[in-house]
Amino acid sequence: MAEQYTYEIVQLDPNLPIRCNLYQVQSQLSPSHWHEHLEIIYLLEGQLQIYCDEEEYTLEAGDFFVVNSNKIHGTRSSGEVYSLLLQIPFSYLEVYLPNLAKLEFVQNHFREQNEKCYRRMLQLLEQLVTIYGEKEMGYQLLVMARLNEFLNLLYRDFSYVKQVSDADSRQTARLKEVLQYVADHYKEPISLKDAAGIASLNQEYFCRVFKRAMGVTFLEYVNLVRLTQIHRELRKSEESILCIMENNGFTNYKVFNRMFKEQYGMTPSQMRKGK
Length: 275
Fold this sequence. Notes:
Radius of gyration: 20 Å
Low-confidence stretches: 1-7
Order of helices and strands: EEEEEEEEHEHHHEHHHHHHH
Largest sheet: 4 strands, antiparallel
Strand order of the largest sheet: 1-8-3-6
């Protein structure tokens, strides 16, 4: 889903003012990152775990999820997943919603709040899948018509004025600095001391803050970032597994092999053989 581990640079569809993508992946892992776009994930097949706003959500086929702009979030699946991904630029939305900077949209529980509206939003997403998948002449107009109706319902029935304390803002800013540091240095040895120093927190408090916000420990997160890159390179590069592992920051093959199998359901060599 995301090609960056921290701040994601979203590539828009060349024929649309948004990013729209139907994607099918096996054992997906997208470590926590953020972007300025509003993101909508509509799950068509499989099961997907989303970690967002210090909460973990499980999406089943037929569910959708909304990720607010600049929210740190990540996704994970252990099997095959087929989804519709929509990412709408902040600049597109603020033309129609002048108070956008003060708004947040509900991230889940749509059905409980308004069953009728929820059903219509599902219909619109289903139509988007068909329209975008077929790409008949003029499909762009139909995509934006359905999406704009969806966004109108989201704004009308599932938005609220967010209340963010200065302390929360500072904490998020510190976490983003740490995530950026990991993205820049994951191929090198990274210590807990380094990360706590970047966040200007003592190590014990930093560990608690990071685990609560990200759902994993700091060292677990670093290794997830490394595993994601290794998984990508194993599919594209013909270099040896050991070389790819070492180039991406792992030094213990036994630990790496165990973690890779836990995440992707097979060893690196089995993945290379197509098993």
